[in-house]
Design goal:
By secondary structure, the chain is an alpha/beta fold. It is 29% helix and 24% strand. The strands form 3 sheets. Strands 4, 14, 15, 16, 17, 18, 19, 20 and 21 form a 9-stranded mixed beta sheet that branches. An 8-stranded parallel beta barrel has the order 5-6-7-8-9-11-12-13, surrounded by 5 helices. A 3-stranded antiparallel beta sheet has the order 1-2-3.
Length: 444
């Protein structure tokens, strides 16, 4: 049965609004990013492949520096990290937010100053903490009471480490329940409502090896509304005022985390960075003035908003299968290189590239090659009705939380990362091979 033809399109197939700014149409259905044809990238580096626009990454770093000139902007490394990404972030003046010894060591190996990094994590291993202290990490975020004595003991009697305490402010925000981290009942941080945060702060202040420089909160991810951040600021400043009253301590820093949402498909909302900067700074100033507190230095941690719009995933179609009312388009990647749709229903807008299509657009579901019914990359999307095996599909907004969350499922191997900039392409991260799997498997 043929797939149904859609007669009304909410957005055109040629809408490039969520693609990198450097994206340009080329003759015969081709598309370039960073001055490089995506079809040429597929031919040279094979598929699937991730294409990362260096210019877009740098432009977004500069956008944050311009919007928050008086704040510390830390790139959230968990979104995507490589040595090249570390260099770009460093050269654009951002700090780094890391979640493991592995991320921290990679950054330092690439030349990034450890003093400009912050270590997060709800369950830091001894190696995480030891590595952070050995390399001279700038801040460690205390996420549970048990970490306080552990960090202090590893610092030693003559040392001193700057720390923040992660507070759960009781604010619900984020694109999916699995990425909402500002409310009680989840694994991160210390509750404001039950007194856990206040108790932890008092304990940290009693440790001579620890210097509590401020508070931290992160209310969720893929947030597109400014209001939850304003509520969180008010509650954090309220806690800072109570700490000053009870302990006589004024904190010089307030880290409001990240979670800044981006549009994954044309027509979707994204967080207005200019509005966020203006209203967040205004709320912080007003709240501190009302509480009689000096203005702390603001810290923010964007990850997705820097990396996601700079990335494009390129796949090759392996099979087209009309089944009932659905046309399945199977590609050579899937949930091993992008688990986000399976984890929390992420939606994308794939596009046919590499040739002109004359057929009318139809409803299709792009699926991966893995042995899971949930291996769906993009459900109910528009593709030309003549899509066929061998075609190339490109998926924009693929720079964050895809390759960084990739797996070795079915031993397919993770895709490479190719940087494009000013008309040239270069390999940043090579493709994972069967030889890599064989080397790790040492049993007999």
């Amino acid at each position: 049965m043929s797939a149904p033809v859609l007669t009304e399109l909410p957005t055109g197939l040629d809408d490039l609004s969520v693609w990198p700014a450097s994206t340009a149409p080329l003759p015969d259905g081709h598309l370039s990013v960073g001055g490089v044809s995506l079809a040429d990238v597929a031919d040279r580096f094979d598929t699937p492949a991730y294409v990362l626009d260096e210019g877009e990454v740098r432009a977004r770093c500069r956008m944050y520096r311009a919007a928050f000139p008086d704040a510390d902007v830390l790139y959230a490394a968990k979104a995507f990290l490589s040595r090249a990404m570390v260099r770009w972030i460093d050269e654009e003046g951002l700090g780094l937010d890391v979640c493991s010894a592995g991320e921290l060591e990679l950054a330092v190996m690439a030349g990034f100053p450890a003093a400009r990094t912050v270590l997060h994590g709800n369950a830091k291993s001894p190696r995480d903490i030891e590595t952070a202290l050995r390399l001279g990490v700038g801040r460690i975020v205390v996420d549970s009471p048990s970490e306080i004595a552990r960090i202090a003991a590893l610092v030693g009697p003559r040392g001193r480490q700057k720390v923040l305490v992660r507070v759960v402010p009781g604010v619900s925000a984020g694109g999916h329940e699995k990425i909402r981290t500002g409310t009680d009942g989840q694994k991160f941080g210390l509750s404001l409502t039950d007194g856990s945060a206040q108790h932890a702060i008092a304990r940290v202040l009693g440790q001579s090896q620890l210097e509590l420089t401020g508070l931290h909160c992160h209310i969720g991810s893929q947030i597109t509304d400014v209001k939850p951040y304003l509520v969180a600021v008010r509650r954090m400043v309220g806690l800072m005022a109570r700490i000053k009253e009870s302990h006589g301590v004024t904190f010089p820093e307030l880290d409001m985390g990240g979670g800044h949402g981006v549009a994954y498909r044309p027509g979707e909302s994204a967080l207005d960075l200019t509005a966020l900067a203006r209203r967040l700074s205004g709320e912080l100033s007003a709240s501190c003035a009302a509480a009689g507190l000096p203005l702390p230095r603001l810290v923010i941690e964007p990850g997705r908003a820097v990396a996601a719009p700079a990335g494009v995933a390129v796949y090759r179609v392996l099979a087209v299968k009309p089944t009932g009312s659905t046309m399945f388009v199977a590609v050579d990647g899937g949930m091993s290189d992008n688990p986000r749709p399976a984890l929390y229903g992420a939606r994308y807008a794939p596009r046919l590239i590499g040739r002109s299509a004359t057929a009318e657009p139809v409803a299709a579901t792009v699926v991966g090659r893995h042995c899971e019914a949930g291996d769906i990359l993009a459900a109910d999307v528009l593709l030309p009705g003549d899509v066929r095996p061998g075609d190339l599909l490109a998926v924009p907004v693929s720079g964050a939380y895809q390759l960084s969350m990739a797996s070795a499922y079915n031993l397919v191997g993770r895709p490479p990362v190719v940087a494009v900039h000013d008309g040239s392409a270069r390999l940043l991260v090579r493709r994972e091979t069967q030889e890599d799997f064989r080397r790790r498997d040492i049993g007999a």
